[in-house]
Amino acid sequence: xxxxxxxxxxxxxxxxxxxxxxxxxxxxxxxxxxxxxxxxxxxxxxxxxxxxxxxxxxxxxxxxxxxxxxxxxxxxxxxxxxxxxxxxxxxxxxxxxxxxxxxxxxxxxxxxxxxxxxxxxxxxxxxxxxxxxxxxxxxxxxxxxxxxxxxxxxxxxxxxxxxxxxxxxxxxxxxxxxxxxxxxxxxxxxxxxxxxxxxxxxxxxxxxxxxxxxxxxxxxxxxxxxxxxxxxxxxxxxxxxxxxxxxxxxxxxxxxxxxxxxxxxxxxxxxxxxxxxxxxxxxxxxxxxxxxxxxxxxxxxxxxxxxxxxxxxxxxxxxxxxxxxxxxxxxxxxxxxxxxxxxxxxxxxxxxxxxxxxxxxxxxxxxxxxxxxxxxxxxxxxxxxxxxxxxxxxxxxxxxxxxxxxxxxxxxxxxxxxxxxxxxxxxxxxxxxxxxxxxxxxxxxxxxxxxxxxxxxxxxxxxxxxxxxxxxxxxxxxxxxxxxxxxxxxxxxxxxxxxxxxxxxxxxxxxxxxxxxxxxxxxxxxxxxxxxxxxxxxxxxxxxxxxxxxxxxxxxxxxxxxxxxxxxxxxxxxxxxxxxxxxxxxxxxxxxxxxxxxxxxxxxxxxxxxxxxxxxxxxxxxxxxxxxxxxxxxxxxxxxxxxxxxxxxxxxxxxxxxxxxxxxxxxxxxxxxxxxxxxxxxxxxxxxxxxxxxxxxxxxxxxxxxxxxxxxxxxxxxxxxxxxxxxxxxxxxxxxxxxxxxxxxxxxxxxxxxxxxxxxxxxxxxxxxxxxxxxxxxxxxxxxxxxxxxxxxxxxxxxxxxxxxxxxxxxxxxxxxxxxxxxxxxxxxxxxxxxxxxxxxxxxxxxxxxxxxxxxxxxxxxxxxxxxxxxxxxxxxxxxxxxxxxxxxxxxxxxxxxxxxxxxxxxxxxxxxxxxxxxxxxxxxxxxxxxxxxxxxxxxxxxxxxxxxxxxxxxxxxxxx
Length: 961
Hints:
The chain has 961 residues and is α+β, with helices and mostly antiparallel strands. It has 6 domains: 1-25; 32-176, Jelly Rolls (Sandwich); 191-392, Rhopdopsin 7-helix transmembrane proteins, CATH 1.20.1070; 411-524, 2-Layer Sandwich (Beta-Lactamase), CATH 3.30.450; 535-695, Reverse transcriptase/Diguanylate cyclase domain (Alpha-Beta Plaits, 2-Layer Sandwich); 707-956, EAL domain (TIM Barrel, Alpha-Beta Barrel), CATH 3.20.20.450. It has 27 helices and 35 strands. The strands form 8 sheets. The chain has an 8-stranded mixed β-barrel, surrounded by 4 helices. Strand 25 and strand 26 form a beta hairpin. Helix 19 crosses helix 20. The longest helix is centred in the N-terminal third of the chain and has 36 residues, at 178-213. The radius of gyration is 46 Å and the shape is flat. 36% of the residues are buried. Mean pLDDT is 81; it is low at 4-9, 16-30 and 393-402.
């Protein structure tokens, strides 16, 4: 390379480097645009025009905006403070007028808008100093709540300003015309004074009111008023006028004010709604909440932002909890909750506006003072609400007070106990003290109404509480309340309160005065007189008479108190007559006593268990109103009955038919209510027992309709109007059609298709089950003969289930034999399936029937194996050609358990029986059962049950052997 070329390259690189440096230096300045200022501009928001430079150190360099001549200068500014954080801000102003302009640069210390929710910015001095690109540093104007600097802009000048920041954020920066700024400050000062005056008067007035009246809600309201006054005084910079505060101190005070408002609102809500009247746990929860909030006062000393953020969240949680409580209590007609709703609605609106402000969604200068005024307005509304209650009960009605004095004198001459409930202070007093008569500590029954609950019988607590609440709600009438109180020795005393309300001038109950009498002796005598007439001698349960009486009382109470919705359950033990005939009446009596104890363990004190007839029990369920809870109770009742009972070293399996009837306005009498439950139970009986049925209005017509349907079934059998349906049975080996499983279909003229299950139930109720099965066998044999004539070499079998005990009788077996002999098919093509439960109920009879069927030459299978309490001994004792098992028996987590199926198949093969799987519904399960060694299968996967014409097509297409 020549020397000339090398010199040229060096110069070019130097030039490029200079250009890069100039561009790098000029980048901050190029992004900054001067804000034009004219004479008519009163206030300009510079916030969006300011560029922030964080962590730049104590020395800051920047290029200025070009002046009117287009000249840029590079200036360097050093920090004026000793503890500068290295944060800087730059903005530029251009005077486009032809005269000199005096302006103020204002940066407020605290701004609610955009301050944040969780770790809010609680304010601080924002600007330490402002240095212009020409001239001297700006002069600071004294101000307690903002950083204010005065500037003078010459005509046509363009000046760049560098601000030394004390914080990394600069929430707002305004430029004001001095007189306009002064007028605005004066206008806000007037507003601040009005709001502060109202807040101060409210705080003082509510405090004085507390001294005069002394109710618990007044100090809570006064505390909230003082907290709001403190918050407003800090926000309006009034507190700083009284107590000079540094910026750090103001942050602590501001956080403490937030905590105080959150704490006082919790206390107000708890005390005003009187949440601890019946539930002491709410008092403990509120106390814990309050203690946590009080701890935030200590947190505020070290981390004000964290304390303020938690307080704001607590305030929001309190408001939301108040909404839930007020809606709940309003539906229960609690006056205080209803009266508080307008003020709480304003609190909700204030909370929403505050959220929008602190998150920056609302951004203007009016929202902060508006929220302060709204807070004072909230206290004003709460004060009005509290004052209404404070002065409502201040004056007794003169005539009524005289009556109370006269009654008090009368009590002194008797042995009666005065029961006095001061509703306002929630304090009950008995005179003379009744607690020692029960062996309790003196004064144990004196105090809040909820203290009585711990001594009351558990079954009476809810009634005691709800009765007093309803008495306060109705505000009229006389109170008569009977309940049981536990004495120190553990025995319960029957007590009666008779009282009347003392009303204030506006109709509110402020006192309840009456007598407290011990009715134990009277109750015991009455119970002894009534016991023989109303108690079942065997079980000790209420009988039919007392059940009707209690039902009638509940119906009357349910009309007066909508929350009372009793449910009536009738349960009848299945096959109880057979147990008495087989094992004797002693076994039956022991079973009834054992079932009584089991059922009683499921009931609560307010529920009633009664033996109404024979093996039937009735339960009045008051403790549960929710349908899901009633269903859970019914499941528990069924499970309790199903547990076998041991008698003379023999286990007796029990089931029951259960009917349920819920209360509704149509129940005029208890007898009608009981009849509804009985009809539901009878419906469960017709369904085969061991089931639960709920009453429906249509059940009233079921008896007549059922009898009509039974007659129609008999005529259909006689006229041969029913159709036999055939469901394919497949042999796993080659997936060949092996035969059909028979069922009946009946097309009723009015009801349409009647299911096979209902047909069997109707036949059982009308004692025509055997006749129906014989009809099925005869029709299936005839159809099978027709198939064989149409399809040569087709040898499918038909399987009919002998699903009733009558089919095991010799007379019925003889009829079966005659049908088989008369048919034109081989006996082996007719297969009879005997259900497992039939074999278990009459094993000896089943064994004889099996031997008889073997002599005929028909096939015999066992169906439903594993659905009951069967065991493998059945397969050993009875030689069946095949055993059909439901596919669900061998599944776990919806998957067939191949090892179990295979082991069962091998065992069944050694016992000489094939395995058939019922109700198969997918190919994967079919493959798994086939690989495990099963022989036959039936289910939806192989097709639904079809009529004879469709079945013959299947035989023709697939063949059968």
